[in-house]
Automatic annotation (TrEMBL):
<dbReference type="InterPro" id="IPR016131">
    <property type="entry name" value="Haemerythrin_Fe_BS"/>
</dbReference>
<keyword id="KW-0813">Transport</keyword>
<dbReference type="InterPro" id="IPR012827">
    <property type="entry name" value="Hemerythrin_metal-bd"/>
</dbReference>
<feature type="domain" description="Hemerythrin-like">
    <location>
        <begin position="24"/>
        <end position="139"/>
    </location>
</feature>
<dbReference type="InterPro" id="IPR050669">
    <property type="entry name" value="Hemerythrin"/>
</dbReference>
<dbReference type="InterPro" id="IPR035938">
    <property type="entry name" value="Hemerythrin-like_sf"/>
</dbReference>
<keyword id="KW-0479">Metal-binding</keyword>
<feature type="domain" description="Hemerythrin-like">
    <location>
        <begin position="207"/>
        <end position="321"/>
    </location>
</feature>
<keyword id="KW-0561">Oxygen transport</keyword>
<dbReference type="GO" id="GO:0005344">
    <property type="term" value="F:oxygen carrier activity"/>
</dbReference>
<dbReference type="GO" id="GO:0046872">
    <property type="term" value="F:metal ion binding"/>
</dbReference>
<comment type="similarity">
    <text>Belongs to the hemerythrin family.</text>
</comment>
<dbReference type="Pfam" id="PF01814">
    <property type="entry name" value="Hemerythrin"/>
</dbReference>
<dbReference type="InterPro" id="IPR012312">
    <property type="entry name" value="Hemerythrin-like"/>
</dbReference>
<protein>
    <submittedName>
        <fullName>Hemerythrin</fullName>
    </submittedName>
</protein>
<keyword id="KW-0408">Iron</keyword>
Length: 367
């Protein structure tokens, strides 16, 4: 195991030094090293699977890639926006297109091997095209502008908005071998609202329909809380039980709202959309059964299921509803307001507050 780990680090160091990836911005370089680590780890897993004629655990690889983009893109966009980078809009558009392509490769694949190879191809292309060109452009902009980048990076690190793991820091220290005292772990804390906001923006989940977006953000809160619990290994069983109960309640409330909206406004694809809702209910039931049988990996399975749902259903199918009714948003708002007043849909104060906190400076979804 030690030998494999040493060989992996050697490959990582060779790849990092073979191209001008180094930007001189420690927090960004750390995340770029982590991307190279993810790529090499996936390559090694594919080679090992082919050698042993076994299957690649593509779900874990996909999740790692998604975790990476949500954390990295949010941090990078924060820095670029703060310093008024001239090509900020184009850079963000590139990020959104990358998430779409990564998701397409994963869901279009007919088997795990194809999905793994597709993800690997997209990640490598991103590494050698985007980082070596687009990211180098903003690094040169910072140098030419003589901006105090270090102070701002320290400030956002201390805020806990973009947490750095011990593993990420150790790998970065090993590969880059420079002073990392500016990247401190002990001062960081988990910022759940910021993490939800990062995923929401990076995955481009907004439908433009306030009541639906509110409920999607509530689902995202469940995912983030369960994910944190699993990573910390603290009360995971209790959190799982809570998330499962909330997910069951979510299916009744959220799917009921979408069903009423689609039928009232005569959405053309209502039958297929409702069939997908049935599949969601089925996997929630399946994970609940696994939990009752004592499966130790059920929490991880549920997080994977819910994240897949974000990208396969919410980011694709639910956005179609938003596009179909974008000229009728006011009418839609009036309709959902009446449903709420009549007691047909219930929205808690906590859900409304979370919606406002995540989206920042938005009106009450039922006003």
């Amino acid at each position: 195991m030690q030998k494999d780990s040493s060989a992996h680090l050697d490959s990582l160091r060779i790849t990092w030094l073979s191209e001008p990836f180094f930007l001189g911005i420690p927090i960004i370089d750390l995340q770029h090293v982590w991307l190279v680590h993810i790529i090499l780890e996936l390559e090694e897993e594919i080679v090992e699977a082919e050698k042993n004629d076994s299957d690649v655990n593509v779900h874990v690889s996909f999740r790692k890639a998604l975790d990476y983009v949500a954390e990295h893109f949010a941090l990078e966009e924060d820095i670029l926006e703060h310093f008024n980078y001239p090509n900020f809009k184009e850079h963000v558009q590139g990020h959104r297109r990358f998430v779409e392509r990564l998701t397409e490769k994963y869901y279009e694949a007919k088997n795990n091997q194809m999905a793994a190879l597709g993800i690997l191809q997209i990640l490598k292309k991103w590494l050698f095209q985007h980082i070596l060109h687009d990211d180098t452009d903003y690094a040169e902009f910072f140098k030419a502008s003589n901006l105090d980048l270090k102070s701002y990076c320290n400030q956002i690190l201390k805020s806990g908005k973009y947490p750095i793991s011990k593993e990420q820091l150790l790998i970065y220290q090993n590969i880059v071998q420079i002073d990392t005292t500016s990247i401190s772990l002990h001062e960081q804390s988990i910022d759940t609202i910021q993490e939800i906001r990062n995923i929401w923006k990076t995955y481009n989940l907004s439908t433009g329909i306030p009541i639906i977006d509110l409920q999607h953000i509530w689902l995202l809160k469940m995912i983030v809380e369960l994910d944190h619990s699993l990573k910390l290994g603290d009360g995971a069983s209790e959190t799982f039980h809570k998330v499962i109960a909330e997910a069951i309640e979510y299916t009744k409330d959220h799917f009921g709202v979408e069903d009423k909206i689609m039928r009232y406004f005569r959405y053309t694809d209502v039958v297929q959309h409702m069939n997908q809702h049935k599949r969601f209910i089925e996997f929630i039931k399946m994970r609940n059964d696994e939990y009752k049988l004592g499966n130790p990996r059920v929490g991880l399975h549920l997080v994977q299921d819910l994240r897949n749902w974000l990208l396969s259903h919410i980011a694709l199918e639910d956005k179609k509803i938003g596009l179909a009714f974008e000229s009728r948003v006011r009418e839609l708002s009036e309709f959902t307001k009446k449903l709420h007043q009549s007691g047909e849909i219930g929205i808690s104060r906590e859900q409304k507050n979370l919606y406002k906190l995540v989206l920042q400076s938005v009106p009450d979804p039922l006003d």
